[in-house]
Amino acid sequence: MQSRTHLMTALAVVLMAGGTTACGHLDAEPITPAPRPTATFSNIGYADWSEQEPDYRFYPGDEIEMTVPSAPELNKSATVQPDGRITVPLVSPVMAADRTIGELQASLSQAYAGTLLRPQVQISVKATAPLKVFVGGEVGNPGVYDMAGDGDALRAIIQAGGFKTSAKRNQVVIIRRGPDGRAMMRTADLLKGLTSPGGADLVPLRRFDIVYVPRSGAAETGLFMQQYFRDLLPVSFSYAINGTIR
C-alpha cells in the first residue's frame, strides 16, 4: 500500500509541475521531488475525475481565423508563435496563448479601438497544434508524444512502442489537470481493447495528460518514480506564459 502511495504522489507532483509560466518563450519548469507520503493513498488529494470540457485555450502552433466585420481587409489567419503571440495588421503582436476565444476577441477589439470606429473582432479556431502527452512506465519508448486531437490512451501507448510484457494492461493510470487546477486521477482497463475490439475504456486525452502503465505483479517504489519523472521527463513538456504556474 505504501509503495502505491509513493507512485500516485509522484505522478501528481509531475502533473502539477507542468503548465504555464513566463511570457515570451517556451520554458522548462523544474520538477520537484515528491514529498514523502504521510498516510494512505486516499490522503493524496486527487480531485474527483470530471469529463467536463473546459473552454479551449490557445497554444503555440494553433491557427486562428480573425474576422473584422467593419473592416474586411483586416481579415487574417494567424498562427500562435512560440512566444504565445499572434501578428495581425495595424497593431502590435497580441498575446494569444493561454487565452480563450472570448478573451482573445476582447484583447484584439481593445487593440483596434484606437484605429477603428467599430473595432469588434471575431475569432475562430482554424486548426490546433498536436496535443503533447507523456507516456511512461511499462511501454517500449517512454516520453512525450504529439497526438491528434482525437487521440486516446491506447493510441498513445501504441505510439510509445506498445506494452511491455510486464505491463499491467488492465490498470493504466491517467492523470490530468482538473478545471480547478488540481490533479485528477483515474485508471483504465485497456486489456479489453486487445482482446475485444471496441470494448476498451479508451479515455480520450487532453493536452499534457500523463499516461502511466504500471508493472504487473510488482509494486513500483517511490524512489523509482521520483527518479523516473525527474530525470526522464523532457524539459519541453510545459511552456510558460505570464509568469504564473497554472
Automatic annotation (TrEMBL):
GO terms for molecular function: polysaccharide transmembrane transporter activity. This is Polysaccharide export protein. InterPro entries: Poly_export, Poly_export_N, Soluble_ligand-bd. Residues 132-186 form the Soluble ligand binding domain. The keyword Oxidoreductase does not apply. The keyword Signal applies. It comes from Caulobacter vibrioides (Caulobacter crescentus). Keywords: Signal. Residues 51-126 form the Polysaccharide export protein N-terminal domain. Gene3D superfamilies: Outer membrane lipoprotein wza domain like. Residues 1-22 form the signal peptide. Pfam families: Poly_export, SLBB.
